[in-house]
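Try this one yourself first.
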């Protein structure tokens, strides 16, 4: 019979072994890479349906839930929308069949943890799409192969072009182009239709700045049927496709480089109350640990990290690329706004009212002139602020692209105005303090878009900030 002391020692030994096993499992979990995937494209291309199908195929949603959504969709005479209900959770989205908010969900493969961001396609909700794309590492551009739908989405006025440009501007460097609805009666898995769509989109992707050979991959799928998503296409369905399925592409795509040792930066996209103030966002640089003392900028609030949540799990730490929720003490909910940045105390992000930027003018509204005094809405990471162009500094001549930057022809005089397609260096002012970085130092906090009356008119990057500690240049 064991003595009391021996029993205590045995219990301690078992407890230590269990703790070691748990830590090993945690480390295994950490070894899994993490990717944020945004689904973009024209309204009704099938983004939400594909997102729902991915969650079903990866075991995140069970058959009973799917049957419930099928009945619900049938009651609304929307039989083909049931998969979208997994991602479109509010009643307005289900009734209209339009994604409004950025849907968010999680799934895993053997090698990778994914956060899905389902961006709205409708032009009225482009600001929400920008919010989703700014948190993403890779993009899935969904194209409808159905006769007429591809053309509507891609021609002038469709959202495909604007979404691609915005994704590139917001730092989505890798793009998977899924040609959806290949099972439609107007397509029937036609290679000719797939090739036609690819041939029309490739030149546009190139002009938007994508390296098509290196960073873009095309594949045919059916989101509603789940074809070519988790497993490769059966030759009896499509005899010409020899390429990978969607999950294979997800597993093989390269993770963009991240800096775990850089200063901590997390733009705040949302906040709510739950036993303290909880903020949501994507870690862009550095790491965060439970118990850390941090700053909320620009209001310089000193906060303490009470808890960190990754997906639905409470974790001790999180690194760059993770979409997380952080419970804070030391600040009130009303003192935090979207676009504020959670930052390290030793190396905080700057807060400014103005900056110099290099802008590419895309397409101004009819009769508009881009000159000093031009007003627009600035979108930079999670910031949405009204801004004014206060000075045009120089126009850059892009016709001599092959010359080195040092020899690029630049105008000697400050331009009074510029037209569509121009590249211009200008000074931009905002009314409220915003937290941004130079693009060359920190791309994710230094790239932006300008929009006017619901239309993207320019994309740009921050090239100069006021001197440290100053909000303006003067």
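Now uncover the answer:
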């Amino acid at each position: 019979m064991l003595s009391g002391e021996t029993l205590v020692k045995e219990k301690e030994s078992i407890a230590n072994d269990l703790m070691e096993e748990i830590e090993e499992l945690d480390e295994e979990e950490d070894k899994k890479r993490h990717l944020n995937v945004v689904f973009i494209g024209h309204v009704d291309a099938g983004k939400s349906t594909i997102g729902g199908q991915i969650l079903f195929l990866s075991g995140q949603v069970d058959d009973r839930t799917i049957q419930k959504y099928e009945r619900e969709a049938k009651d609304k005479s929307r039989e083909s929308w049931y998969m979208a209900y997994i991602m479109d959770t509010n009643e307005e989205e289900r009734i209209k069949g339009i994604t409004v908010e950025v849907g968010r969900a999680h799934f895993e493969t053997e090698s990778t943890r994914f956060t899905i961001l389902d961006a709205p396609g409708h032009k009225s909700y482009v600001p929400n799409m920008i919010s989703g794309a700014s948190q993403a590492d890779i993009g899935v551009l969904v194209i409808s192969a159905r006769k007429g739908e591809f053309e509507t989405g891609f021609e002038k006025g469709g959202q495909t072009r604007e979404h691609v440009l915005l994704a590139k501007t917001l730092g989505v460097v890798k793009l998977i182009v899924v040609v959806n609805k290949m099972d439609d009666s107007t397509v029937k898995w036609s290679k000719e239709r797939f090739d036609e769509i690819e041939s029309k989109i490739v030149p546009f992707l190139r002009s938007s700045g994508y390296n098509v050979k290196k960073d873009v991959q095309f594949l045919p799928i059916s989101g509603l049927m789940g074809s070519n998503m988790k497993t490769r296409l059966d030759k009896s369905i499509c005899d010409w496709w020899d390429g990978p399925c969607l999950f294979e592409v997800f597993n093989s795509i390269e993770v963009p480089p991240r800096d775990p040792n850089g200063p901590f930066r997390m733009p705040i996209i949302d906040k709510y109350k739950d036993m303290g103030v909880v903020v949501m966002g994507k870690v862009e640089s550095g790491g965060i640990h439970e118990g850390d003392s941090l700053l909320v900028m620009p209001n310089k609030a000193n906060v303490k990290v009470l808890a960190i949540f990754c997906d639905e799990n409470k974790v001790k730490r999180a690194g760059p690329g993770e979409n997380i929720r952080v419970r804070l003490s030391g600040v009130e909910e009303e003192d935090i706004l979207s676009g504020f940045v959670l930052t390290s105390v030793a190396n905080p992000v700057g807060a400014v009212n103005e900056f110099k930027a290099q802008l590419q003018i895309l397409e101004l509204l009819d009769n508009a002139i881009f000159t000093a005094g031009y007003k627009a809405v600035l979108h930079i990471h999670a910031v949405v602020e009204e801004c004014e162009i206060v000075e045009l500094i120089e126009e850059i001549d892009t016709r001599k692209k092959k010359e080195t930057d040092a020899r690029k022809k630049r105008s000697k005089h400050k331009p009074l105005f510029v037209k569509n397609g121009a590249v211009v260096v200008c000074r931009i002012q905002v009314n409220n303090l915003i937290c941004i970085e130079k693009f060359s130092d920190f791309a994710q906090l230094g790239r932006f878009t300008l929009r006017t009356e619901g239309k993207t008119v320019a994309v740009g990057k921050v090239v100069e900030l006021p001197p440290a500690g100053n909000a303006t240049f003067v």
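Discussion: Residues 19-29, 88-101 have pLDDT under 50 and may be disordered. The two ends are 84 Å apart (CA to CA).
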